[in-house]
Amino acid sequence: MSNTGATAREPRFILATDVGSTTTKARFFGKVDGEWRFLASGEAPTTVEKPVEDVTKGVRNAVREVEELTGHRILDDSSEELGFIMPYLGGKTGIDVYVSTSSAGGGLQMLVSGVVKSITAESAQRAALGAGAIVMDVLSVDDGREVYEKVNALRFLRPDMILLAGGTDGGDKTHVLEMAEVIAVSKPRPRFGVSYRLPVVYAGNRDARGDVRKMLSEDFFDVRVVDNIRPQIEVERVEPARNAILELFMEHVMAHAPGYEKLMRLTSTDIMPTPAAEGLMMRTFAEMKGVNVIGVGMGGATTNVYSVFDGRFLRTVSANLGMSYSIGNVLKEAGLENVRRWIPFDITSDELMGIVYNKMIRPTTIPMTLEDLAVEHAVARESIRMAFNHHKYLARELKGVKKERTISDIFEEVRAEETYIDMRRVDYIIGTGGLLSRAPRRAQSMIILADAFQPIGFTYVMQDSVFMIPHLGVLSKIYRDIALEIFEKECLVPLGTLIAAAGVGTVGEKVADVTIEYSESEKEQVELTFGSVVKIPLSQHKEVTVTVQPTKKFDFGPGFGKRVSKRVRGGVVGVVLDGRGRPLYLPQDERERRKLLTSWYRAIEAYPKEFLDKLG
Amino acid sequence: MSEESFAYTPGLAVTPLTYITRERTLPIKGETLVSPGQRVDFDTIVGRCFLEGSPYIVKVAELLGVEPEEVPRYLRVRVGDAVRKGAVLAGYTAFLGLIKKAVESPIEGVVESFSELTGHLTIRSPPRAIELRAYIRGAVLKVVPGESVTIGTPAAFVQGIIGFGGERHGAIELVSSSNRDVVTPDQIGEHHAGRIIVGGSLVTYEALEKARKVGVAGVVAGGAKITDLERILGYRIGVAITGRENIGFTIVLTEGFGRLPMSERAFSIFRENEGREAAINGATQVRAGVIRPEVIIPREEKALTGELGSLGEGRMKVGSVVRIIRYPYFGEIGTVVELPVELHKIETESPVRVVKVRLQDGRVVVVPRANVEIISE
User: Fold this and answer.
1) Cβ contacts (< 8 Å) between A46 and chain B: which residues?
2) What's the pLDDT at A82?
3) Which of A599, B119, B227, B374 could form an SS bridge with B71, CB 3.0 to 4.6 Å?
4) Which of A323, A270, A558, A290 lies closest to A439, judged by CA?
5) What letters, b where the CB count within 10 A reaches 16 and e where it falls short, cover B316-327?
6) Residues in chain A closer than 8 A to B27 (CB atoms)
7) Each residue of B189-238: pLDDT tens digit?
8) pLDDT in tens, B96-134
């Protein structure tokens, strides 16, 4: 097992890896002149499948690249097996800490079950997602499926783990036992071989614990009992279930992935699922600053959304919404028109589908033309929008009785009153993932995040410079301050402040008078009109006071027509005034829409001028 | 300045002769029916196993309207009993026969368990026999008794980029005279039933529909429109995990979606092997552990043994033949003329590692290394 706990003295050099489903990414950090710095990165294909079924090989290749780039010796080459020179030996030799995250082999894939879909099943889903799992299916007594359909789902899906919840403590236990019975008879086969007993976390009615153990035979299942996730209808306690999932993830899932046992021996703390580590970093940041944060991790296969709202943390993983393997599915779920609405030029359905589906089958290719790039950016907006809807669907107050929903509803718009995430009070939006990190212009990330999340009022937008949030998340478990220092200084690129209005108007109509006060003597007045975006260049090191006096149809946070004044910070993009309304206004007419889109992209210089000039 | 470089995208294997092995694995332990050295044909059954039947939970307590602990009193069957569909599992008569209640078995099977906690019976349907076919024609190389059989053969081998439908076999027949031709329905006739037809750059919806109607085993082409494929499948494609489509035949696209000429190399392999029996499989999985669709044309008369090397994963160097796999040069084939070390700003303004490629028409273009694949030598 891993040796938990950190070395006593403060480390000098830290190595972190993320073993992703396709690429293993090594990040190397060091203390230089008294400050923690990101020093280098190395990447190599993940080696979890044939012909090289040993993750340590991919880790070695990625670390080797770091060595080549820095001249710093990290790998202990004295043996065939992966090893690191630990601790740091002085000069350019050795490291003090090694940590890792993993989403190899498709991450942690779970099936959750509860009694009532909108009560225990929903809480179970939150617990599983909170542990960084991909939820493959949600079963409940009232999910509308016949018993045999549930059995078939269980047999077909081959989950890594099952979370079984249901019933309040002391309440009726028949229904939760009914679900236990479904699991017992279907004997789901786990992904990793026959010798493996399927882990089941039981977090339901405490009175049914003995019965559940009796039903789920030890020959097939490894049952772990934890406190009830809903001890009472009005109380949700997901932490014990979440922790049990993470423990079982280490014991079972990771231990059965090829080479992980070796890797686990080398890490200074337990390996975490990538989304769990990413979420932990966002949460640590929000708690330290005492702010509300929404984060998004855009992967090739999944889109993860995180929120810390009034201290409440929620993480969701939307499987099959992503920018490479899952890009076709984004188009399928969002619909062609929803993707096309962000594209500033004429494109036929066949052309659009050709670009998207050819990317799906050749996921490592990158856009060569600006048209292609704009198409990917359009898909990204929809991927985040739908993942955020999924997130808001679970970011709701607890309710005993709810409106019935089906699983296909989760990407539908969630009404503002149904979620506790108030878009007027989002202090920070943080984006990470390849598409954002690799966007040729930072303004592209800024407008993608603005369009997808559509915050209201004053929101500071940041992005990951080179994918390292998961690395810092797992590091924060043992060196919180170091992780935070690197996170703020080296990891986050400050894009700038977005100031946006809620409300609807007609294009050209006045939204607000905006005053930007650089100093007592230097002020700038802007009349923000409906359907427009105005960029005010301001560096990340500068702050200004922005005062907004909206007309009575618009709201910048405190209410319609209400004046608001705040100190705001610039960024690599600057301060962006967004007069496009909420919900964001896009004309039905194709030509009008393209004209408006082009004007926004021009205003924030999202794409080269010559390209936009060609569009008209 | 140039260097060698790994292509980011492993190229697809397209080779006129190699040694192919396929491990055929039973989903659960069963029996293997062949022995090493034995010759097998496409349809030879090489293994067999019995998959446990589906369980069916019968809610006896609820159906009888009694408490779970009372159910045993009314049971007419015991765990282990074989029951027919409609057989009475439990029941009672009361008030001198005025009230009768009976619970019947919804399926034929065996009583697997009874739970006193829920008062439910589980009936499991009879096991289902699964027969494992050889899939390719060749010689049995290795047998893991009860688990798997490995078959090998010298063969011409063409990997596609995406496919639909599972394992089938049939004789190869070209329906296009060049790799650039479009396959239309008039080129397909009744005589193509059971065959694998090969076309050029595009197979239209109408042609696919005709192919299905006449009962071809497979269709291979450079490309097809995604909308046409979705019409054939009857649903919108989400993620690229395919192979289980129930469309009656198998489709393999060698280049991608749209009108894309099949690579000359692949087309000439099919031309050389016209009339020969081949195995085709559309199963695709574009994720870690990539699975690509394939056509395997056994050439047992050729003397070749041993494992197939790492097909399609060569290093890219000056002189390598590559195919560009992204717009605006999608499908173009060319020769690497330079592999600049320094990052290059492409049209999107992304600084990326690039490769200079001389296209077949003589133009030299600069493309990201991520956007080319090496064509197997």
Assistant:
1) 288
2) 93
3) B119
4) A323
5) beeebbbbbbbb
6) none
7) 999 999 999 999 999 999 999 999 999 999 999 999 999 999 999 988 88
8) 777 788 999 999 999 999 988 889 999 999 988 889 999
Q: Identify the CA nearest to A476 among candidates A464, A462, A488, A459.
A: A488
Residues in chain B: 377
Cα B5 from Cα B11, distance rounded (Å): 13
Q: Any chain B CB within 8 A of the CB of A83?
A: no
* CA–CA min distance B108, chain A (Å): 15
Strands B344-345 and B333-338 turn out to be: unpaired
CB burial of residue A327 (10 Å; 0-12, 13-18, 19+): buried
Are A358 and B238 in contact (CB < 8 Å)? no
Task: Tell me whether strands A97-102 and A13-19 are parallel, antiparallel or unpaired.
Answer: parallel
- Domains with residue ranges and CATH for chain A: 13-104 (3.30.420), 107-260 (3.40.50.360), 276-320+423-615 (no CATH)
pLDDT digits (tens, 9 = 90+) for A245-275: 888 877 776 666 778 888 889 999 999 888 8
Q: What angle do CA B327, B329, B335 make, to 5 degrees?
A: 140
Inter-helix orientation angle A370-394/A327-334, to 10°: 70
Q: What is the DSSP string of B285-313?
A: E-SSS-B--EEEEE-TTS---S----TT-
**Nearest Cα to Cα of residue A320 among A387, A389, A406:** A387
Q: Do B289 and A50 touch (CB under 8 A)?
A: yes
Q: How are beta strands B109-115 and B82-83 bridged, if at all?
A: antiparallel
Tokens 């509308």 identify what position? A144
Q: Answer whether CATH 2.60.40.10 is correct for domain B314-374.
A: no
Q: Are residues A242 and A315 in contact, defined by beta-carbon separation less than 8 angstroms?
A: no
B247 CB contacts (<8 Å, ≥6 apart)?
Answer: B164, B165, B212, B232, B233
Flag if B237 and A328 touch (Cβ within 8 Å).
Answer: yes
Q: What's the distance, CA A338 to chain centroid? A: 22
Binary contact (B367, A368; C-beta < 8 A) = yes
Distance, C-alpha A22 to centroid of its chain: 17
For residue B117, the chain A residues in CB contact (below 8 A) are 177, 211, 214-215
Domain boundaries, chain B: 14-49+133-298, 55-124, 314-374
**Where is B174: in which H helix or E strand?**
strand B168-174
Chain B CA closest to residue A147: B57
Residues in B closer than 8 angstroms to A353, CB to CB, are: 226-227, 257
* Domain B55-124 CATH (choose: 1.10.287, 2.40.50, 1.20.1740, 3.30.460): 2.40.50
Which of B28, B122, B240 is nearest residue A185 as measured by Cβ atoms? B122
* Structural contact between residues A39 and A31, judged by C-beta atoms closer than 8 angstroms: no
Q: Which residues of A touch B368 (CB under 8 A)?
A: 365-366, 368
DSSP structure string for B312-344:
T-PEE-TT-EEEE-STTSTT-EEEEEE--SS-E
The C-alpha of A361 sits at a distance from chain B's nearest C-alpha, in angstroms, of 6
CATH number of the structural domain B14-49+133-298: 3.50.30.10
Is the pTM for the entire model greater than 0.80?
yes
